[in-house]
Design a protein that fits this description.
37% of the residues lie in helices and 35% in strands. It is α+β, with helices and mostly antiparallel strands. The chain has one domain (4-74). The chain has a four-stranded antiparallel beta sheet with strand order 1-2-3-4, with helices on one face. The radius of gyration is 14 Å and the shape is globular.
């Protein structure tokens, strides 16, 4: 049972289910979302806490991807 959804970004969607958060990634090759990863969480998150976790994860993921791309350019 999904409690909250977070879909403010097109490339990733998040679902909060009881005690974990599911992350789906959009793949351009299939034009569909597919499971990407999941995170354990408290079972009593508020919607604001959930939104903050999702946004923090999203920002961190994009920083990692940018750093990886820059590293490949230098190598």
């Amino acid at each position: 049972m999904t409690i909250y959804n977070y879909d403010k970004h097109q490339d990733y969607k998040f679902e909060y289910k009881k005690d974990h958060i599911l992350v789906d990634k959009f793949y351009t090759t299939t034009n569909k979302y597919a499971p990407y990863t999941s995170m354990m969480s408290k079972s009593d998150l508020t919607e604001e806490e959930f939104d903050n976790i999702c946004e923090d994860w999203y920002v961190r993921k994009h920083r990692e991807e940018a750093a990886r791309a820059n590293h490949k350019k230098v190598s």
